[in-house]
Structures are given as C-alpha cells and as structure tokens.
Q: What sequence folds into this?
C-alpha cells in the first residue's frame, strides 16, 4: 500500500508543482508519470501476491479517507494508471494553447488522481468524493476550448448526464449504506435481500451504465469524446468508461446479483442492442474521434451484456465466471488499443488539420511514425490475431459458447442473443476501423496538409511504445490472469487457477499460443520473401492503373462517407442521415436541387428521446418564469411554504 | 505424422482451391453451351503471374509491400492448423475452430486494406462493398461455429469432428442441416460466388471481389491469388468435413493419410458442384438484397444452435 500511496502523492505533487513552478513543466510531467508508474507497480504486486492491502486516515472532514485494494480494484487501477501514464507522456508533446497552461496541468493531475482513487476507495464517502472529483475535473477539461460552440454543447450534454448519473450513484450507495449497515465496503457482503437492495441495484446500475456509455444513457459520449483534447479523450475512453463497468461489477453484480433477475435480463438485452447501435453509428461516422467514441460505447456495451449474462448464469457456475473474465478482459484490451487510437488520431489531426476522415489519407506514406501506430490500433480493434483485441474477442466467444451449452433455456436464448449481437457489432466495428485505417491512414492524401505542429518526439515515442504493447499483449495472453483474479473477487470463487502465460486457453492446446503462431508465421513469411528474391521477378513503381485512367485526382477516391454508404443504406432506419440540399446557383429553379454530401449523423436516441424532454423542460421553465419575478419577499414566501409542507409531511 | 498431415492438407487446399475454381468456371461454360477453359486455367495463370514483374503504384505505402506476404502467411497458417486430413490424438495439436475462423476472416480484412492503399476509386468501391458484406456475414459464421461447438462442448476442431463421428445421429439431424445452410451462405458471400458476386464479371459497376485486386500485378497478384485460393479451398474443405465428418484418418500410416486426403478432395468436389449448381441456376442479387440472404443465414444459424442444444 505504501508504494500506492507514494504514487498517488507524486501525482498530487505534480499538480501542485504545475501551479507553483509554472515554468518548469518537466517537473509536473515527471512527477505524474512516476506516480502512475508507482501505482501500477503496486497493483501488479497486489495481483501477484493476492493480498488486499488497506489504509485509512482518522476523520478529517465528516469522514476519513479509506483506501482498499483487492484484485478487482488492482486490475482496474493498474489499467487506469497505465492509460494515464501514456496519455500524460503524450501530453508533453501535444499540449498547446490553453492545454499548456499551468492551470490545465493542475486539472490533469487532479483528473488522474481521481481516476486512480475511484477503484481504490474503501468506503462510500471516499468513493463518492473521488467519483465527483473525476466527473468535475473531466468536465472542465472537456470544456477547455469553451469559445467553440461544439465544445459548449458537448460540455452541457456531458454535464447533464454525468451529474444525473452521479446523483443516481449517490442515492444508490447511500441506500447501500443503510442496507449493509456500514459505510465501509469491507462490510458489504452478498446475501441480503429486500426492496432497498433492489432500489440500490436500480439506482446505482443506471448511474454506472451512464458512465460506461450504454444506450440510451450514452448521449454524452459521442459529443464529449470528440471535443476533448486527445490525451483527455484517451483517459476518458480508456480509463473513465472502464470505471463504469467497474462500479457495475463491484456494487451490483457482487452484492445484488441474486435479486431482481428481471432487471439483469433487461440489462443484458438492452446492452446487446446498445452494442449494435453503437457499432452502426461507428461505421457511419465520418469524424475520426466520433467514430472512436462510438466504438468505445460498443465495447463497454458488450462488456455490460456479458456481465448481465454472467449474473443470469448464476453465481458459482463455470460459465458465469468465464463471462466475467471475458468482460474484464475485453475492457482491459480496449483500454490499451483505444488509448493508442485516440492518441494517434490526435497526432494525425494535428498533421492534417481536421478531424473529418473525408479529408484524410496518405498519412502512412508521409508520416509512418504517426500513421503506423494508428493502423496497428485499428487492426487490434478489429480483433486481428496476434493483437490484444483478439485475446478479448476470443475469450468473449469462448465464454458465450459455455453459456450457450449450459442446458437452461432462458440462459441459452439470452446467450444466443448476446452472441449474435456481439458478432454483428464486431463486424460493423471492422467497417468503422477499416474506414479509419484504410481511408484515413492509407490511400492518397485528399488535401493539402497544413502541418499545424512540428513533430514532437514525445508523441511519437508514446505511440510507438503503445503499439508495441498492443502487439505484445496479443502475443502473451498471460495477462488474462489478472482479469481472472479480479473476476474471482466478484464471483467469490475459492481459489483461482493460474493460466499458462503463453496460451489463450486454460485447457492447454499447443496451437493456442499466439507467440508460437507468430513464430511460425514469421518463418513462413521468410520463406515467401526468400522465394520472391530468388525468382528475380522484380518490382517496379509506376502510376496507379485505376482501370485505364491514371491521372485521377486524389479527390476522386472513395471518401469516408462513400465508404460507409452501403452500411448506411442497410441500416437507414437507425442512422437517419441528414443530407445537405444545396441549390446550385447556375441552375436555380424549383426542381434543380443538388444532393450534397451527408452533413452529420444525428444520434437517433438524442433526437427522439432527449430533445423532446429538453424542449418540455424549457417550456415548463418558460411557464414558471412569472412565478420568479425577482422579489426577495416572494422567494422568502416560497421558502416558508415549502417548510410548512415539509412539516406537514414529516409530522404526520 | 501430424506434420505430414498438415502439409498434405495445405497441398490439397491450394491445389483444390485453384482447380475447383477452374472446375466451376468450366461447369458454367458448359451450362452456357461453351466449351470453356481447361480446369487448370487458374493454376496456370497463377504460375504465369509468379514469373512477372510486380507493378505497384508509386503513391502506395509500405502496406502494399507487406500485405501480400501477410495474406499468404495467414492463409497457409489457417490451412495447416485446423486438422481435416488427420485427427491428432490429443486436441492440443489442433487450432480451435473459433480461432481458425477468425484467422480465416482476417485474411479478407488484410485484402481490403490492400485494395484501399493505392487510393483509386475502384479499390474503394470494392473495399466498401466487401467489408459491408463481411460485417453482415460475421454473425451467421460465428453463431454457426458456436452451434457446431455446442455438440462437443468445446470449440476444438478435432473434438467437434470426433464428437460428430461418434454420434452419427447428430450429423443427419435437422439442426446440423440448418447450421450447414448458414455456413453455405457465408461461403458464397465470403468467396464471392453467385448469387452474391459474379466471379466472371469484369464490369466495374457490379464487381466486388475483382475490384479489390484490380491494382495488383505480377508476383504480388500471384501471392494474393494463391492465398485466395487457399482460403477458398479451406472453407470448402471445412464446411464439407463438418457436414460429413466421415473418412477422416485418426492415426494410421501414410496410406491412411493419403486415403483421407482423397476423401477430402471428393467431399470438396461435391460441395463445389453444389456451389456450381447454385451459381448456374441463380441470377446475381442486387447488392442491397444480399443482406436479406445473410439475415436468412443468421436465422438458420440461430435456429440450428438452439436445436442443437435442445437435442443434446
């Protein structure tokens, strides 16, 4: 625990240094990065040794700070620390404008500390403080460029959902406090029943699902992720949504898994649908970061559907545990490759000067050190073998296979639904990632770049290291031992078996070792390359053939929008593209309307669920305006009336 | 022996893939009243391209350089590691069916990225269509694979085949047939056969698979076309063996292996004939009618899976 505390202290110290020594930015970076590294090391220690270190201070203000790390907390905190560490290193090269001010650095340190504290909190008060601090600091970081209208809208949506979700979590955990009779999580054990536990389950799980970005509570995600600066998006996507899944596991699955099975059934199905919905939007988005935001939503939704299914499978069943491992492994793999993708896309955005994939292209050729990592990240997100994405996907499929095979009808049916949704959403995410890598990074440049930032070593080093990590974690799937331990905390399994570090499967299988397959693949490739050499056929660089006309302009390539057009047509009822109808000046008449490009894909949930609500609230506020005419006497009267009403209610 | 089996399997899939493509083309020609090219035509063409210079767009990136090799490597690995000629004594020596399928699917992803790299309009068009259809084929494929694994309680391919061999009733059950239909739909989609794509077309507006390889020439194209043939042979062999699991050697000497490979070739030819009959007797679907076909595949995979669980 000492190492962990030292780490947290170092991150805080970094924040203080940013404000005290505004000129020495290096001190801030060094301190925060070292702090994250220390925390991650401590987490590895906890995962390996299997203890649950704890720490608490005497009452400071209303309550003390209480920290407690078990395997689940350590796994999540370790991932969070890793994501924050690389994001902050990247920030060293990326920061510019308002993001490079001491205040912004202080905020980043605060955000990192709160992210690290959430999974380590040992009682209700510490957890809620950390949670709210995380929400608020990330909100300010999202709203950093407040002059832009898109940023303001995004921040408003984010504030609305995150505060609403936060309120639900506060209500849920306070209810939990009453159910379990203690505010310390170490006294929160399963086996309780009753209406208040159901209330806690409903309230807190809704709050956590909003943080994880499961439809219909996801609306903040595709707005806030794109508008935040790249390292902040990376931390929000890789680490913060992960904490939503963490909360769901820690408070709802572990403590209230046995009550309200109908709720878990609903959660499973809704999460599956949410994953497909997110994947369709990811496939049709043409803003690179919006695409990534929707694919984040796809992963967290899939994880939450696996979690729901694990509860339905029943505590102690083999498939339940492996579903939990799969869910944790999926979000763990996602944390790695999505951080890489958000950072890489942020780097490319600075090169090209826009986030719109319609104008990208030719990045790999011109800037291999910026484009290459993004391609690797996209391949991992597609679940290509020998990357970390494959490990998560493989585990998810295996655990679903087990759930399908259990002979219980309701479970089999739900598992087939989840499996179908998983397969379809994975397929659609492939379309999205293909668009990002193929249209955005490969192909030819679609416009003159304005290089808005000179290349910085920090950004490229971070991207290279992360890409390496994404591949290494795919070659050595032994890291799945960590989610396996963490799942045991939730499922309360007695002892956990240790997986072979090289093998995907617990049951062995020589060929399920990715490293072995990679070696075989390398050998085969070497043979192919060698036989090419000795055949003397030669290679010539020439102009592209393009069916006989080689002087095509790069603007005639398929763009991101045209690439996604078939998917959009198939799912037209979900995507509902808004098209620009532009009257051409030279042929202006009633009939001559030129069909312009797709402007923007509105989120159907946002449009049809939230906007009517917002309109209603605005209308209500308008009607209520005469009642608030600015007179203090009137307000005092209102206060009196409310007090009287309360007394009547309480006194009865 | 396992190594010999794997090697034999690669040869069967490579040659089988190439020759069966020629066989299908010839079948079609005959049905149209033409004589058609000999069935060795694809093999000869691939050999011809191997000897020719590779032309690459000067504006393409490093991906164009490495992708043909990666593609062929993945195809070879997939073809060698899911045992269909000889069942190893322990399942430790077979690639699991889920893993094998994902390796197989990833080949088409590599190819799509390769098509996008030179930045031409046709490459983009083919890529966009191919990847859309692949996305929609994925549920049918994965659900069907899980459905087949449910019977054995494991996704290890040799466990599945052994389970099927020992429980003959499973093989002729309706559930099995439904899964077979799903796999057939996936096979037609992913290998670009009618009614999804017309392999004989050179009309740009309708082509999917041809558009992906338009920019390839010479040795690069030979590698890609060999890899595609391997993938075609693999999926034919896999589907045929899963549907009719008999005649697979388990142990035994070289003779047994050769016999088993012969049986595999027969099964692949029968399945290819079925594909050919479908191809001759159906017109190409409009692109946006293909999702309906694939939805049918998903439905039949789901029904097959549930029926398998019920029957167990």
A:
């Amino acid at each position: 625990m000492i190492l962990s505390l030292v780490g947290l202290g170092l991150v805080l110290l970094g924040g203080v240094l940013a404000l005290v020594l505004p000129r020495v930015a290096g001190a801030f970076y060094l301190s925060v990065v070292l702090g994250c590294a220390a925390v991650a090391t401590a987490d590895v220690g906890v995962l390996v040794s299997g203890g649950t270190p704890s720490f608490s201070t005497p009452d400071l203000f209303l309550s003390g700070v209480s920290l407690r790390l078990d395997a689940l907390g350590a796994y999540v905190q370790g991932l969070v620390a890793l994501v924050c560490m690389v994001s902050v290193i990247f920030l060293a090269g990326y920061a510019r404008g308002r993001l490079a001010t001491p205040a912004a650095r202080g905020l980043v340190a605060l955000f990192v500390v709160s992210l690290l504290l959430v999974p380590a909190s040992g009682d209700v008060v510490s957890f809620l403080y950390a949670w709210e601090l995380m929400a608020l600091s990330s909100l300010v970081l999202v709203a950093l460029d407040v002059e832009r209208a898109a940023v303001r809208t995004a921040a408003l949506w984010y504030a609305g959902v995150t505060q609403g979700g936060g309120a639900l979590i506060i209500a849920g955990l306070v209810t939990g406090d009453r159910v379990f009779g203690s505010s310390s999580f170490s006294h929160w054990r399963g086996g309780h029943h009753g209406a208040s536990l159901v209330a806690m389950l409903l309230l807190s799980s809704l709050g956590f699902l909003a943080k994880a970005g499961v439809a219909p509570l996801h609306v903040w995600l595709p707005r806030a992720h794109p508008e935040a600066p790249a390292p902040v998006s990376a931390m929000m996507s890789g680490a913060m949504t992960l904490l939503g899944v963490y909360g769901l596991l820690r408070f709802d699955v572990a403590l209230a898994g046995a009550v309200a099975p109908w709720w878990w059934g609903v959660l499973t199905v809704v999460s599956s649908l949410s994953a497909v919905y997110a994947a369709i939007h990811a496939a049709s988005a043409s803003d690179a970061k919006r695409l990534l935001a929707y694919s984040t939503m796809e992963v967290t939704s899939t994880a939450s559907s696996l979690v729901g299914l694990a509860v339905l499978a029943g505590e102690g069943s083999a498939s339940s545990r492996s579903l939990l491992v799969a869910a944790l492994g999926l979000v763990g793999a996602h944390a790695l490759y999505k951080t890489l993708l958000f950072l890489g896309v942020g780097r490319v955005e600075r090169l090209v000067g826009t986030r719109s994939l319609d104008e990208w292209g030719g990045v790999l050729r011109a800037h291999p050190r910026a484009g290459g990592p993004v391609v690797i990240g996209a391949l991992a997100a597609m679940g290509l073998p020998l990357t970390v994405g494959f490990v998560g996907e493989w585990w998810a499929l295996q655990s679903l296979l087990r759930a399908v095979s259990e002979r219980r009808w309701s479970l089999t049916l739900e598992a087939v639904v989840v499996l179908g949704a998983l397969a379809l959403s994975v397929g659609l995410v492939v379309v999205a990632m293909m668009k990002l890598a193929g249209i955005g990074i490969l192909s030819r440049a679609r416009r003159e770049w304005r290089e808005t930032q000179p290349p910085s070593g920090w950004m490229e080093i971070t991207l290279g290291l992360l890409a390496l990590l994404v591949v290494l974690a795919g070659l050595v799937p032994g890291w799945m031992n960590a989610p396996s331990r963490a799942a045991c905390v939730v499922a309360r399994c007695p002892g956990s078996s240790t997986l072979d570090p090289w093998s995907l499967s617990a049951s062995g299988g020589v060929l399920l070792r990715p490293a072995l397959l990679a070696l075989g693949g390398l050998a085969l490739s070497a043979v192919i390359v060698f036989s090419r050499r000795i055949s003397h056929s030669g290679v010539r660089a020439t102009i592209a053939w393009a069916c006989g006309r080689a002087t095509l302009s790069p603007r005639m390539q398929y763009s991101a929008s045209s690439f996604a057009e078939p998917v959009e047509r198939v799912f037209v009822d979900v995507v509902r593209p808004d098209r620009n109808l532009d009257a051409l000046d030279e042929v202006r008449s009633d009939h001559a309307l030129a069909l312009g490009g797709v402007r923007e894909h509105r989120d159907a949930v946002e449009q049809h669920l939230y906007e009517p609500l917002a309109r209603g609230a605005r209308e209500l506020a308008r009607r209520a305006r005469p009642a608030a005419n600015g007179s203090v006497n009137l307000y005092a009267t209102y206060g009196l009336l409310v007090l009287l009403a309360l007394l009547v209610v309480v006194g009865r | 022996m396992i190594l010999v089996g794997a090697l034999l399997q690669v040869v069967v899939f490579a040659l089988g893939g190439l020759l069966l493509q020629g066989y299908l083309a010839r079948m079609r020609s005959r049905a149209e009243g033409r004589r058609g090219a000999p069935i060795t035509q694809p093999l000869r063409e691939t050999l011809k391209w191997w000897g020719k210079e590779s032309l690459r767009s000067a504006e393409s990136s490093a991906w164009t350089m490495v992708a043909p090799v990666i593609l062929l490597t993945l195809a070879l690995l997939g073809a060698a590691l899911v045992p269909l000629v000889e069942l190893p004594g322990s399942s430790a020596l077979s690639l699991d069916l889920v893993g094998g399928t994902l390796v197989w699917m990833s080949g088409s992803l590599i190819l799509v990225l390769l098509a996008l790299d030179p930045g031409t309009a046709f490459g983009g068009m083919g890529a966009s269509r191919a990847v859309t259809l692949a996305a929609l084929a994925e549920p049918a494929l994965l659900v069907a694979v899980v459905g087949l694994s449910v019977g054995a309680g494991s996704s290890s391919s040799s466990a599945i085949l052994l389970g099927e061999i020992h429980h003959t009733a499973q093989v002729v059950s309706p559930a099995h047939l439904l899964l077979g239909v799903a796999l057939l739909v996936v096979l037609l989609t992913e290998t670009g056969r009618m009614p999804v794509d017309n392999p004989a077309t050179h009309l740009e507006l309708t082509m999917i698979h041809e558009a992906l390889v338009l920019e390839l020439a010479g040795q690069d194209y030979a590698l890609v076309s060999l890899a595609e043939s391997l993938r075609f042979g693999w999926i034919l062999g896999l589907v045929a063996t899963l549907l009719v699991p008999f005649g697979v050697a388990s142990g035994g000497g070289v003779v047994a292996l050769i016999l088993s490979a012969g049986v595999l070739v027969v099964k692949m030819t029968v399945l290819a004939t079925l594909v050919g009959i479908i191809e001759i007797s159906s017109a190409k679907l409009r692109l946006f009618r293909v999702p309906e076909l694939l939805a049918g595949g998903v439905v039949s995979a789901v029904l097959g899976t549930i029926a398998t669980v019920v029957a167990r």
In short: Chain B touches chain A through 83 residues (CB under 8 Å). Residues 113 and 120 of chain B are 12 Å apart (CA to CA).
